[in-house]
Specification:
Layout (H helix, E strand, L loop, with lengths): L4 H22 L4 H12 L4 E2 H8 L3 H13 L3 E4 L8 E4 L3 H37 L4 H30 L5 H13 L1
Antiparallel strand pairs: 1-3, 2-3
Length: 184
Amino acid sequence: MSRTPAQTRQRAIDLAAETMGELIAFWGFKASMGRIWTLLYLSSSPLPADVIGERTGLSAGAVSMALTELQQWGLCERAVLPAERKRHYRAETDVWGVVRRIVRERELRLVGRSVQRFSEAVELLEESLREHPDDEEAAFMLSRLRGLLSLARIGYQMVESFAEVGMFTLDPIRGALGRANDAS
């Protein structure tokens, strides 16, 4: 049985939206956000919330909450349409810009916290070793922690670079991993 063009388009939207929902969920967001963003991204014109709900199978409440979050992350925006009373929404189409913004706001904060906490752990062991220089276990741990701190700092620079430019290389990590293994 062949599909109508509208059925084929809807099936393609469903497949893409389900896939994006899975990807978004993997990154810690709600799958519904990915489904709605994909529908908006693939739509040639802005859509009202009730149509979004119909096409995604989500409840009005789920659509409303997801649209609010999508707007907060800069993934969609309200579109004002003349002679329309309903609120319409359109997706942000600069996908790399969106990814960079999310990386800057989430991952950079996480990696920055890692740098801070590894630094604190290094300082604790350095202080302990000043008082107890013969503590071989602490010296071993300090060596390993300095390697982790180095990796976290490189990771921070990489994430920061990606957030600004949209690309990064793994070369700095290769060198840091070698140094960390050599130290142990």
